[in-house]
Amino acid sequence: MNIHMKKGRPADFGKGVYVIDEQKLVDIAGGDAASLQIATLVKGILDSDDYEPPILPEVALSLTQMANRPDVDFHQVEKIVSRDPLVAAKIVAVANSAFYSRGQPVRSLSLAIARLGLAAVRDVAFQVVAQTTIFKASAYTSRMRELYAAAQLAGVIAREICIRLTFESEMAYLCGLLHDMGEAIILGIVANHCKKNKLDPYPAESVQATVELLHAQVGSRICESWGLPRVLSDAILFHHRSTESRDEANMSTVIAVTDLLLRHVGAGVPQQKINPMAEPLFYRLNLTPTQVTALLEFAEEAVQNDEQSSNK
Ligand SMILES: [Fe+2]
Ligand SMILES: [Fe+2]
Fold first, then answer.
1. Which ligand is nearest to the CA of 219?
2. What single string gives the DSSP state of each residue in the chain?
3. 36 Cα to the center of ligand 1, angstroms
4. If you measure from the C-alpha of residue 179 to the centroid of ligand 2, how many angstroms do you get, rounded to a whole number?
5. What is the pLDDT of residues 55-96, one digit of tens each?
6. pTM score, two decimals?
7. CA 55 to ligand 1 centroid distance, Å
8. What's the CA-to-centroid distance between 15 and ligand 2, angstroms?
9. How far is the CA of 182 from the centre of ligand 1 (A)?
10. All structural domains of the chain with their residue ranges
11. CATH code reported for the domain at 16-52+139-311
12. What is the mean pLDDT of the chain?
């Protein structure tokens, strides 16, 4: 893959709303000393000057910047995409998928781009980034696979919620796809640390407790360091406490509802069937009972399609 390094971080990286709160680290000490140790370690590594966030390939960043411009030249998009063969191949494959092809195969990249449109082309580029860069670590291989599958599903569900509510849906897939990327980042940091220092792996429950505590903050910090739009880093930061969010697009609540649906179908988390009547989050989005039922069915179908395609 043609990767251009995007090193460094903004001067206020880790400050402002993205700061990892010392008090929060101490809060878990009561439960588990090992979790505090891991959380402190992760925070220390993230805050250190020599920490390099995972690299965001240039194709993903360029497409994100272009998606915000009204006068996009498709030749320019093609030029950017063709520098990355993996992304280019995936775009042609998606354009030929049942969802987009309507029985009309496309062979060329330019036709595939025209068929998908810029936002979907950008989303495909991020799918490739998620699979090859974010949800990847030498240890935790099966968890990473699980997280990647759940991330894709989250993207599809978040977009569906926005479409049904006639919300602006352009960033919804990306918000869903990346909302739990902090978990992958933390697992990567922990795995590297153990490997480098020849340590036995930390207890899984303690690592998971750290992930639960820090993943939203870590994910939003990395997004910020990549220069991605604020709607994304805010949706990630607030997805487990959406009542505190000030985002007007309601994206953190959309992602919180997405998470609920993922739990309902057991994607990336243990399955826990939800009782829609007992979930105030649905009402915060003004979803009607009919819309809620339709979304539950949509999530169930999406996870089944996923299982079928991965069994092929
Ligand atoms: Fe989460
Ligand atoms: Fe989640």
1. 1
2. ----------TTTT-GGGPPPHHHHHHTTTT-HHHHHHHHHHHHHHHSTT--PPP--HHHHHHHHHHT-SS--HHHHHHHHHT-HHHHHHHHHHHTSHHHHTT----SHHHHHHHH-HHHHHHHHHHHHIIIIIS--SS-HHHHHHHHHHHHHHHHHHHHHHHHTT---TTHHHHHHHTTHHHHHHHHHHHHHHHHTTPPPPPHHHHHHHHHHHHHHHHHHHHHHTT--HHHHHHHHTTT-GGG---TT-HHHHHHHHHHHHHHHTSSS------GGG-HHHHHTT--HHHHHHHHHHHHHHHHHHHHHHH-
3. 19
4. 6
5. 899 999 999 988 877 788 889 999 999 999 999 999 999 999
6. 0.88
7. 22
8. 24
9. 8
10. 16-52+139-311, 55-134
11. 1.10.3210
12. 86
Among all chains, which residue has been given the structure tokens 């959309």? Answer: 254
Report the distance separating Cα 206 and Cα 220, nearest Å. 22
Give residue 13's pLDDT. Answer: 47
Radius of gyration of the chain (CA): 19
Instruction: Give the number of whichever ligand sits closest to the CA of residue 259.
Output: 2
Q: How far is the CA of 238 from the centre of ligand 1 (A)?
A: 9
User: 150 C-alpha to center of ligand 1: Å?
Assistant: 11
Ligand nearest to the Cα of 214, by number: 1
The residue with greater pLDDT, 19 or 83, is 83
| CB-count exposure of residue 56 (10 Å: 0-12, 13-18, 19+) | buried
Please name which ligand lies nearest the alpha carbon of 257.
2
Residue 9 has pLDDT above 60, yes or no: no
